[in-house]
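Supplementary Text 2. Reproducibility record for the structural model of the 527-residue chain.

All settings were left at their defaults, and a single model was retained for analysis rather than an ensemble. We include the record here because the model underlies the residue-level annotations in Supplementary Table 4.
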Amino acid sequence: MTRFTPFALIVVLAAATVGLALALDAWWWLAAAPLLLLAALGVYDLVQPNHSVLRNYPVAGHLRFLLEEIRPEIQQYFIERNTDGEPFDREARSVVYQRAKATEAEEPFGTEREVYEIGYEHFVHTMCPLPTPEQPPRVRIGGPDCRQPYDMALLNVSAMSFGSLSSNAILALNGGAARGGFAHDTGEGGLSEYHLRPGGDLVWEIGTGYFGCRTEDGGFDEAKFTEKVAHPAVRCVSLKLSQGAKPGLGGVLPGAKVNAEIASVRDVPEGKTVISPPAHRVFNSPVGLIEFVARMRELAEGKPVGFKLCIGSRRDVLAVCKAMLEVGTTPDFVIIDGSEGGTGAAPLEFLDHVGTPLTEGLITMHNALVGTGLRDRIKLGASGKVHCGSDIVKRLIQGADYTNSARAMMFAVGCIQAQKCHTNHCPVGVATQDPRRARALDVPDKASRVERFQRATVRSATQLMAAMGVHDPNELAPHMLRRRITPTEMRSYAELYDWLRPGELLAEPPEGWVADWKAAAPAAFTT
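Retained model, structure tokens:
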């Protein structure tokens, strides 16, 4: 409650000076007047819906905005003092905040990017651009064995669990999804009332802990799964194999955070530490994975079922493709999580040194599916630092059919990257289970911001595609994206990467793929 101390002190001083002015001397009004104004400002801060910082830090929170006005660089102290300081975070916050608040404006003096810097990328536009379509394209999720396909938006809310995020943050994200007609991934923390109440479309994510459909000993409970997946808000099911922030690790939720509500949602004992294992216990091979996906789809009455992973070994990817051919069925979608993405807490060395970046991961999975003749049955989602229209178009060119965003969606609901997630003291009510702090997040206001951000970002993507001469994402091709590789030379993605032909791995694998293709075994993952 110390965050209210300045406000409380102002109220006490205001009351005291008013009393002195009335009882002793009218000159006390000179002190009482500004104190009363500050007290009134604090009351307004507590009830206004737009700034979560001010709702949690009445009066004192204005210092943050004042310092940013004086020196914008001070914002780095407030929201990046414990981060890696990557340019993405600064650029993303600016873009997301502007679009979420509907304040985006045209820039009058051109790019600030260094176009001759190695690694700079640009799209190839046409001399005959198309008009921007009124309605953005959608992607139909559902292969031959799916009986309830779902039309996915180009940008959706990526996996963030209730427990990691507050109830108000979940309500705002799902409310935005409901308003905007896009999907909201639940994260692996279970299916809560906050996911269901606003009415947004859900991708129910199930991780190694099987939260929400868990037996007492931590296994998969088919009966619980069948009951919950039947809810009409659940449009797809995603089986999490790994995530970009920490591939190869599970998770730990300390017992102190497992309150009665979270225990109920996750099907775990209250007050006891919950451990998500690093691997699934219901299968231990590529064939087992595909059979389990097929079983989940059967229990879900034909709703789309897929899995999410951060790519590691290309050999494992090919083994899974071989398993699909052997079992005779496929997932309806696969979500590729890049190692550069993820909002989940993780050890620093995992963040820095484990997992494949999204570009290479997407291209690897896309090529493997094309090469085995399975690409037309499976849609690919991409997750990892997607925050603007150019990110969407870039990922579509690299092999994705649609994208998901976590961090940018957190910005849209008010996250300022204060790096207090693990302390339960989030200053804006996003990543906390303290109801007094969570109240700072005004759900209707932030739901509108989520909807506006998603709509403006997809609109930007369709404008870019129209400038490139396409309306349908399927018309995008690798030659439309170029990267500078030396100060004087640029190459297109068609030149930088190998792109397999349909069925090429089955007929005659290219030289660079032969060893992995031969070694890939559908009966076992690599070790």
